[in-house]
Amino acid sequence: MIDKIDHYLGAMKENEKSVYYKSISRHIGGLGREKHILPKWVKVCLVIAGIIITIFLVKGAILKFKINIKIKELEKEYLDRREVSRKLSKSESKFSKFFHDLPVPAFIIDINGYFTEINSAFIEKTGYSQSDIVGKSIFEPMEMFSVTSKGRIMDNFRRRINKEDVEAYTIKFKTQDGTKKYFNITAITIFKNNDIAEVIGVATDITDKVGSG
Which of 27, 162, 194, 207 is found 20 to 30 A from 79 (Cα to Cα)? Predict the structure, then answer.
């Protein structure tokens, strides 16, 4: 019996396509092992997935490129603005020094008619302090101006706001100690972005020419 089994096994071993080798190949691998071939639909899916990934990578690279350009533009804009701000600050500093060093009374009025600044000569010539003038409106009662002069100041200011030409004019002014003086007012309108921002004026004492009456 055993001899017969050995005989049949030997015969099967001689044939690579026999059940013997197919059984071994099925369980532990070996001769007659079949190659695994991917289905066509899987290959198509892999190709499509590859295309989609490539598209995303390209779009990501383009987006990154655009972002880098925008960052550089923003950096340049920031540096330009900082330079403009530095020059503006320097210019304002020079103007402030010039304004306060003027030997004649000078003042600044904003678009709403409020005094925002007066210089040292204004304080010296009139006797009024910063707190007496700054923050006050030309449209509110101010005892240093006569009724006629006050009306003239308001009228000329309104004309400036309407962008009309305004020539120099004279006002009667009472100083802190009650002395009456005459000042010739010359002013310029300051624009920012084509809009009126403020009015800067100087007051020249002409009392000796007009008289103190």
Answer: 194
CA distance 92 to 80: 18
Instruction: Examine the fold and report which residue of 81, 101, 121 is the final residue of a domain before the chain moves on.
Output: 101
The tally of domains found in the chain comes to 2
Selection from 139, 134, 101 nearest residue 118 by Cα: 134
DSSP codes, 37-84: ---HHHHHHHHHHHHHHHHHHHHHHHHHHHHHHHHHHHHHHHHHHHHH
Say if 11 falls within a structural domain: no
Amino acid at the residue 149: S
Indicate the average pLDDT of the chain: 81
The rounded percent of the chain whose pLDDT value lies above 90 is 37
Domain range for 74: 35-101
Per-residue pLDDT reduced to its tens digit, 92-112: 777 788 888 899 999 999 999
**Whether the Cβ atoms of residue 169 and residue 149 lie closer than 8 Å to each other:** no
Same domain, yes or no: 134 and 82 = no
Q: How far apart, in whole angstroms, are the C-alpha atoms of residue 30 and residue 173?
A: 119
| pTM of the complete model beyond 0.70 | no
67 and 128 both lie in a single domain: no
Q: Which residues contact 129 (CB under 8 A, 6 or more apart)?
A: 123
